[in-house]
Amino acid sequence: MSSLMVKELELTEEFRDLSLICEVTPKSVRLGVLKLMNPVIENIKECQKTDKRLMEKLVLVDKGKETNFKVDENGIMRFRGRVCVPDIPKLRKMIMEEGHRSGLSIHPGVTK
Which of 22, 52, 86, 96 has an alpha carbon 20 to 30 Å from 7's alpha carbon atom? Predict the structure, then answer.
């Protein structure tokens, strides 16, 4: 019985994380979700397909021989949860500039 309650809690948490919008009317229920993607992530995803070393790791992941690397639900390869950035100077420069210019960037230790 308690395992069912745990599963129910896990499902509830997963639904919460989806950020669903629910609209109930007398005749229907509407569910919606808005998902925003950063173009930098899409560029990384495309560049990962051309990186030889990452493709070799992908083969090992598919065979179950590599556990540190995973492919997430968006098809992006990650190493221990972190995005694998291919060794492409133009891409790396774009990422650094995005992090520097972004209004959402946070610098630990800064109190201003």
Answer: 22
Integer Cα distance of 55 and 79 in angstroms? 13
State how far Cα 51 lies from the chain centre: 19
> For residue 107, what are the contacts with CB-CB under 8 A and spacing of at least 6?
none
Count of domains observed in the chain: 1
DSSP string for 49-111: TT-HHHHHHHHHHHHT--SSEEE-TTS-EEETTEE---S-HHHHHHHHHHHHH-TT---TT--
107 in a structural domain? no
Task: Give, as one character, the DSSP assignment of residue 34.
Answer: -
Structural domain that includes position 75: 2-101
Single-letter code of the amino acid located at 97 = E
Mean pLDDT (the chain, rounded): 82
Choose among 51, 20, 44: nearest CA to 34: 20
Residue 107: which pLDDT band, with cuts at 50, 70 and 90?
Answer: low
- Distance between alpha carbon 76 and the CA centroid of its chain, in Å? 7
